[in-house]
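[Q] Does anyone have a clean structure-token version of this?
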Amino acid sequence: MLLLEKSTTANHQQAAFQESEYFKEKSKERYKIEAKNSELKHRHGYDVASASGLFGMQLQAATAIFAVNLKRIITLMSKK
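[A] Here you go.
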């Protein structure tokens, strides 16, 4: 019974948070983040680990993010 009460309280707190101005403002920006995450996963191999171990995964993440940032820099420079 106590677990159910905690769950209900958490649900009410989450519902109240979702009605806040902070949440509404941040949710309007979320599509940009999700688009970038999708690009990393689908175009730059960030969806599946290519190496084992934490260092290999960190190296893959750094490489993928570097490639995306470099692509963005080149795009911005070519517009000038």
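[Q] Thanks! Anything notable?
[A] Residues 44-80 form one domain.
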